[in-house]
Amino acid sequence: MKIQETLSSGKLRIIVILTITATILAIPLIAMQFTNEVKWNLTDFATAGALLLSTGLAIELVIRNLKTGTLRTIILVAILLALFLIWAELAVGIFGTPFAGS
């Protein structure tokens, strides 16, 4: 019974990650219908989707393998910090790397 609960819980969390990723990606898609200021192409959506999905799955991996503690918190903060820094670099090129197309 315990194994079924764990599998069910794990599947549910993966579904939540996929749903949140799709919801976040729907924001610019909907905005593109109402304004010309948002201009995303397929590559933008694929990049953002890969970044969000990989972040969600990395967080899931940490949550599954590290039950509690300071190390878990530090790793989760580092994952989120990496997400925000990469997203900012891709959006506006805050570091001026070729990664952002500058």
UniProtKB/TrEMBL annotation:
It comes from the Bacteria. Keywords: Membrane, Transmembrane, Transmembrane helix. The chain crosses the membrane at residues 12-33, 45-63, 75-96. The keyword Transmembrane applies. This is Uncharacterized protein. It comes from Pedobacter roseus. The lineage of its organism: Bacteria, Pseudomonadati, Bacteroidota, Sphingobacteriia, Sphingobacteriales.
